[in-house]
Design a protein that fits this description.
elongated
Length: 60
């Protein structure tokens, strides 16, 4: 079962990094949000330690 609700995450990044990030995302036909969600998912999986993760978050 996938999580259906969403929450907003606001972050600050310098304009040049943002431009490059958006350019690279577009070149791979991905939105910046898709890439950030993927990165967060990977980070949580790798660093959860002993925390219990929901089934939908355990495997990619």
């Amino acid at each position: 079962m996938k999580e259906n609700r969403t929450a907003r995450l606001t972050l600050l990044i310098d304009p040049e990094k943002k431009r490059l990030f958006e350019e690279i995302c577009a070149s791979k036909d991905l939105t910046p949000s898709q890439v950030v969600r993927r990165l967060i998912r990977q980070y949580v999986q790798e660093n959860a330690g002993n925390r219990t993760l929901p089934e939908w978050l355990k495997d990619d």
